[in-house]
Amino acid sequence: MTFKEILKITANLVVLYVAGGLILAAVYVKTAPIIAKKAAQEKKEALQKMMPDADTIQKLGDWKPHGKLAEYFVAKKDGAVIGYVVQTFAKGYSSYINILFSVNNNFVVQQIDILHHAETPGLGDEITTKWFKGQFHGKDMEHLKVVKRETTEYIQAISGATISSRAVTKDGIKKGLKFLEKALKGEKQHEPPTARKG
């Protein structure tokens, strides 16, 4: 192969890569606003599902469970606060579990939803079932505890998936509820103590 042929092949490849990059950029510019709009709509629907009686749900701030960016919101009806919605992350058996939950003004859980996870199929993924999620309704901080027996007082563990059950309950919702209570009292979160000089 001559030097001239090598240059020709190289030039053709450069043209091909540049053309491909331009096409991808054009597709992104066209689809990015549509994707963003859809994501915003899905988020709005997810929040409304958590607090169906609310006529407005406003963001209060951000926090970082397990270093992942999450949000929390206040829900109002006719201008009065009726509860809060918190996004949180829990460390499960094989993934971080993205959770959304709502509480009323007394910090009693109303609903929960699992937004994303990669727990074991047939075991840990049962955290998304109506039966498991339904147990959280009416539970306060004291009753967010997982037990391995039938219960209506606490949260019954999924058989063979205690780690996932505890992750959602303790590491996710209970920790999120503790954060919310402190945030509403105006306490600063996750700040290391300042070292004293001297």
Structure summarized in a few sentences:
By secondary structure, the chain is α+β, with helices and mostly antiparallel strands.
Overall tally of structural domains: 2
Radius of gyration equals 24 Å
- Count of DSSP-assigned helices: 3
User: Which whole number gives the mean pLDDT?
Assistant: 87
User: Major sheet: order of its strands?
Assistant: 1-2-3-4-5
Question: What global shape is seen?
Answer: elongated
Low-confidence segments, ≥5 residues, pLDDT <50?
A: 189-198
Relative helix content: 25-40%
Number of strands: 7
Description:
The protein is α+β, with helices and mostly antiparallel strands and 198 residues long. The chain folds into 2 domains: 1-45; 51-184, no CATH class. 38% of the residues lie in helices and 25% in strands. The chain is built from 3 helices and 7 strands. The protein has helices spanning 3-50, 130-134, 162-184; strands spanning 56-63, 70-77, 80-91, 96-104, 109-116, 146-147, 155-156. It has a 5-stranded antiparallel sheet with strand order 1-2-3-4-5. Strand 3 (80-91) and strand 4 form a beta hairpin. The chain is elongated. The relative contact order is 0.11. Mean pLDDT is 87; it is low at 189-198.
